[in-house]
Write a structure and sequence with these properties.
single chain; alpha/beta; 11 strands; 43% helix; 18% strand; elongated; binds 6-O-phosphono-beta-D-fructofuranose
């Protein structure tokens, strides 16, 4: 292997830059040239590239976002788009591609593999919804950012004796919401993996908290559940509480990565290049039981990630609810 391309695709995540740096530095160590492909798969289609030498990736570990830009490419989903991308790989002499992103990124990489390009995926998303990996780059930072914001909200909610409904990201999964809810000592946490009985799951916990003396309340809603404004209106109707909605939104995707994200990203970026260098392709780097392993992309995409039921039980216990199965 003489030259490798690195790209980031899909929603950005804190730690992606550390993974890019690690891939580039590992290439340097192995005597491989590393080329950054900008704007995800669009960069492969349009030949949007830059050489990532040793100094170009210097200082990247602590940077949020992705210096290679990210995109969701509609054109790459067409056969014509894939062909253009494959031609760019040939033109630039890329022997392999490292793609950092989520399931959509891995599907794109697999399409390239089908056309003879060696590829390795690295899981990077704040949603932690990649089934083959217990952890995805960016999750820890996003959880910490959300917790920091919610702590601030708790102060003003306490002063005004209000009920806060906070919507957190997570796409169709509730991992982020559950983790953040536990960390914040939320009054209730609504996640898409579990059916919501409004009276039992939201109103009862609020009443119980109120009867124990609490005068402000924090309801965490995963975006996959639906509108947090509807949740707030229903709470207001049922309890007459002064209720406010905060959608944390993209603030959760920004900021300097946590130590955990920097280290995980560095290890995963390193592993991806080592896999390519050892002749492997069509695989994704994963973490399981604190070890870095790799999976066939098709197998990885067919896996389903369940909710952390232990965490869910603990959360239900904290809010005084029986568990739900
Ligand atoms: O996958 C990361 C994520 O931030 C999800 O949590 C969210 O649903 C989505 O991306 C938002 O995407 P966009 O940045 O395109 O609005």
């Amino acid at each position: 292997i003489r030259r490798i391309g690195v790209l980031t695709s899909g929603g950005d995540a804190p730690g992606m830059n550390a993974a890019i740096r690690a891939a580039a530095r590992t290439c340097f160590h192995l005597g491989i040239e590393c080329v950054g492909i900008r704007r995800g798969f669009n960069g492969l289609i349009n030949g949007d590239d830059e050489v990532l030498n040793y100094s170009r990736v210097s200082g990247l570990t602590r940077m949020g976002g992705t210096m290679l830009y990210s995109a969701r490419s509609a054109e790459f989903r067409t056969e014509a788009g894939i062909e253009k991308a494959v031609n760019t790989c040939k033109l630039l002499g890329l022997d392999g591609i490292v793609g950092i992103g989520g399931d959509g990124t891995f599907r794109g990489l697999h399409d390239l593999a089908d056309h003879g390009i060696a590829v390795i995926g690295v899981p990077g998303t704040i949603d932690n919804d990649i089934a083959c990996s217990s952890y995805t780059i960016g999750y820890d930072t996003a959880c910490n950012t959300a917790v920091e914001c919610i702590d601030k909200l708790q102060d003003t909610m306490q002063s005004h004796e209000r009920c806060s409904v906070v919507e957190v990201m997570g796409h169709r999964a509730g991992h982020l919401a559950l983790y953040v809810g536990l960390a914040c000592g939320a009054t209730a946490v609504l996640i898409p993996e579990k059916p919501v009985n409004f009276e039992e799951d939201v109103i009862e916990p609020i009443r119980r908290a109120r009867l124990s003396g609490r005068t402000h309340f924090m309801i965490i809603v995963a975006e996959g559940v639906g509108s947090s404004y509807d949740v707030a209106n229903k709470i207001k109707e049922a309890t007459a509480l002064d209720t406010r909605v905060t959608v944390l939104g993209h603030i959760q995707r920004g900021g300097a990565p946590s130590a955990r994200d920097r280290v995980t990203a560095t290890h995963m970026g390193y592993s991806a290049v080592m896999l390519l260098a050892s002749g492997k392709t069509d695989r994704v780097v994963c973490m399981q039981d604190d070890k870095y392993i790799d999976y066939d992309i098709t197998e990885a995409l067919s896996m389903k990630k369940g909710l952390d039921e232990d965490k869910y039980t603990v959360m239900r216990t904290m809010i005084g609810q029986h568990n739900k199965v």
